[in-house]
Amino acid sequence: MTQSFCNLLCRPSTFWAQMQIFMFFGNTMLHIQMTTTPDNLASLKDDMIAFIEGHGLRRFHGYVDPEEVPCVKWAAEENPDGWKDFVELAKAAGAPFLTMDSWELKREELNELIERLEKAEFRDDEDIEEARWLRTYAGKIGFLQLGFGYQGSMMLYETSTEWYDRFQHLIEFSDDFGGITMDGFDQDEEA
User: Count of domains in the chain?
Assistant: First the structure.
């Protein structure tokens, strides 16, 4: 019994890494538990594929754009295994398949982003340096999406890494401010 209890407590989750810190101040013990997401969601993707197929469902490889179709996003509420509940709900709802998409950071995309940030009228050296720092994540999966259709809407489960969220922020920044001139008018307006 002690062995199985220890396995339950000590078994690491494939998605979330948990770290517990115990600090002692005199007679007082401070317990801090931190949960972080991994830098690469490849193992989570493998787990999802196995779980989906184990439930007899098929996968349709495709991205569902929430701006294009009516969607309801799953609220994970800090549950690292909430995606399993999502898959089980899809099966209970009678979905014949789930959509699945993953995004891997490609070095070419990152180099294009760095170049756009460097050529932008409104430059921020910290953003450029942060984009260069993201090179460590090239080849890693930073975003996963599962979905299924139900009564005219797409139900979606999405998860991402912190670096993916930062990459998306830098993309939006480069799109928003890349072509803005600081003096308030474009070269075309002068002519």
Answer: 1
